[in-house]
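Changelog entry: the Sodium-dependent multivitamin transporter record was regenerated in this release. Current contents:
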Amino acid sequence: MAFTFGWSDYLIFALLLVVYALIGIYQRFHDPIVRKLNRLCCNEKWKLKEHSLSDNTAEALTLGNRRLTLFPIMSSVMASFLSAVSLMGTASEAYLYGFQFILMIVAYFIAFSVAAEVYMPVFYKLRLVSAHEYLELRFGKAVRWTTSLVYCFQMIVYIALALYAPALAFSQVSGLPIWVSVLSTGLVTTFYTALGGIRAVVWTDVVQLVFLTTGLLTVVSVGVVRVGGMEQLWRVAYEGLRVQSFDVDPNPFKRHTIWTLMIGGAGMVLSIYATNQTQVQRYLACRDLRTAQLSILLNIPLNALFLFVQLMAGLVSYVYFAGCDPISSGSVSKSDQILPYIVMVLFDGIPVIRGLFLSVIFAAAISTVSSGVNSLATVLLEDIFRPLLLFVRKRDISERKRSLLAVIFSIVVGLCTIGMSFVFMVMGPRVLQFSFSLFGAVGGPILAVFTLGMVIPCVNWQGALAGLLCSLAVGLGLTVGGILYPGTSGRLPLSTENCTAGFNSSIVSIAKTIDPSWSIFHLSYLYYTLVCVCTAIVIAIPFSAIFKFNTKHLVPGQLLAWQTRAIYRRLPSCFPNQWEETPQRQPRDDLYRSMDSTTFLTTRTFKDVDGIDNEQFSEEWN
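Regenerated structure tokens:
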């Protein structure tokens, strides 16, 4: 069954892109607009509040002058990695494997709590611009530059996929040309991200989250009505084994069990929300520490609710197509096309609605792309270009040039992303699995090196670099091996017995018997992150011992999580001391980027290293 978009559908999609562009323009010229409005206000009572800092500086573009409030940051944290790929993939997960994926809610609770209480306070109190600056303070330039390059490689591939994958899915379902969606969304996203910086990214994320929520709830609501109500939905899903009891087998070589989802899933989520620059940049943009922590913790119920709605969309698809699986019948070629396909079926002949859902899918893609472009431009500027310039010229660039370079890097990254998407278009859909697995394989080592820095004070730069490289090799090895030697997937039964006469096959898709082999390459992909972290720890400690740990150069306390300091204070005196308490109050010096870590940490102001007196802390710094 062929579907096509009408002019009204394209109009809705175009209007959405225009709204995003206008948000970028407004955020770029926010200060002049406010000043002109104030001149027009005759009554002092109604005057708008002006920012004391310009919105055209590099810090405004990358961190919003550290004045962003809870609601937009909370929404942006959620939307940043809620890509179109995850949107379609989660629905197909419920369609093919059932409702067991709902246990990721437990992983969210663990990962978000750890990110908010262990990792994020260290970043925030150091007043950094890039998360990788921490690595230079803790381990030196070599570790910082290596991690930054790994991150750049990881994100440029992921951002390009976030553009390409939904375009591919929609083109195969509706005939929408891939190049049209890639080019339009890529150019608009690059435009408003470069122009408005993180403020534009955050506020467009709010709009995108509204679109996503409205669109998914509409699909689920209409779908439930079409299949005969909730009772019928659960009955058919139960008969199809989609909501049966969960797998409690501790075997790590099974794709999904309650243990892989809760424990392995927690590690994977932690690598995204604790140490990924895209998310850390949002925490650093908050007006105070409490706001940053709440923006993470409030994402636990929000992500749980959104995960439930996505899985419900998959169940609705399964029940609606019960007896005539569109994958087996050839109506769609891949499982991630199920969600776009059911939208085309449910709203066939209804103008505007399909265009609205097209906007929903690409809203998810745009949120990921804009967040990635902004964070990647920040890393290129702060972690690679400026340190390299300081090394060569021995002096920093002016604020005006920093601001200009922030815009230029955003444009360059955006255009490279579009170019990479066209490369994927030439290579075809087979590249998708490898590229997505690559993202996970790289995220684990990055989490590992930050964990070594904040949790294990005896690890020095030699150990950290060795741990990073070895864990990266392990992660890539598991990824490539898992693709070349795939294990059993355990798909649940799918039938075509009720398909129309035009479909001549009577194929019935039978669930595969799950008998996982014990090859290391068949390890569940959710455990990759934890394996990388464990590898880094096992390698880093002996390497650090070879170079006599940090006994001669103690680690400043601000570079460790407060839980780590509390534990090490209680260790017996026979353990060599690897860290030292640092002064809580010293004069501030904004020229820290040209200093070594010791000088930097003794010239910054810190409010109560172990406490969280956020209001006073915020006032002192702002």
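The mean pLDDT is 80.
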